Amino acid sequence: MHPILFRIGGLTIHTYGLFVAMGFMAGMALAVREARRAALDTEKISNLFFWIIISAIIGSRLLYVIAEAPGLITSPLEIFKIWKGGLVFYGGVILAMAVTIFYIRHNRLPPWTTMDILAPPLALGLAFGRLGCFSAGCCYGRPADVPWAVTFTNPDSLAPLYIPLHPTQLYEAGAALIIFAILMLTRRAKRFEGQMMWTFFFLYAVARFIIESYRGDPRGAVWGDLLSTSQFISLLSAVAALAGFFYFLRKQGAKQGGT
């Protein structure tokens, strides 16, 4: 609702950037704490988190540019203006996962234990990021007549002004916080390494698929207008997450049965 936090001379501080920074700091602090609990090298985990945030920003912007390429051809400089919105979470996840896998192998960290450590901070950071989206007005919802609809009036907002909209940014922030709570409450009782990350991907995919139905901003489509780009990726993510979850669960059961 307040895209610009303040201006000092020619310097503009955007609220979106503040929330992203807060999410990064909170996520890294949690990841380091969980790494310490798992007896892993906390310095390696904090360095990994730094590379994750960099690759996530690049990847999320890259997928947005690919999805919206026709509209950006005439204004190529818009590609670099991330403070104006246009960060697709799944793009960030794809590139960040590739960087994470490389980093884990290079530093000889236990892969699935490390993934589990990263899952709750990822959900927490996502919640902060979506609050930043709400402040900027990006990722806005369709026109709505529900009692909780929000109306953007700030001329710097990226959302349509003076129209009641679904607060899809808050929907996703709330979903991320619920996922974060589930992961934190179940992490000590997990049955196999990797359970937290597979759980995160499945729960987020389901939430994102539903919330996408209420989005009103342009974000690409597949199969005509049947699904948005993110809904299509959500379907693939949900199937992959379920397959991974039950594969590792069965593998753990077989291991225990053989002992």
Walk me through this protein's architecture.
This protein has helices at 15-37, 42-67, 69-72, 89-107, 111-136, 168-186, 195-212, 229-257, and strands at residues 4-8, 11-14, 221-222, 227-228. The protein has 259 residues and is mostly helical. A hairpin with a 4-residue loop joins β3 (221-222) and β4. The strands form two sheets. It has a two-stranded antiparallel sheet. The chain has eight helices and four strands. The chain starts with a strand and ends with a helix. It is globular and about 60 Å long.
Question: What's a quick, concise take on this entry?
Answer:
With 259 residues, this protein is mainly alpha-helical.
Considering the chains and any ligands shown, give keywords for the structure.
mainly alpha; two-stranded antiparallel sheet
Q: State the shape.
A: globular
- Arrangement of strands in the largest sheet: 1-2
End-to-end Cα distance, whole Å, is 58 Å
Poorly predicted ranges: none
Structural class of the secondary elements? mainly alpha
Summed up, the helix count is: 8
Radius of gyration over all CA atoms, rounded? 19 Å
Proportion of residues in extended strands: 5-15%
The helix content is 55-70%
How do the SSEs run, as a string of H and E?
Answer: EEHHHHHHHEEH
The largest β sheet comes out as: 2 strands, antiparallel
Q: Averaging pLDDT over every residue, what do you get?
A: 86
Strand segment tally: 4
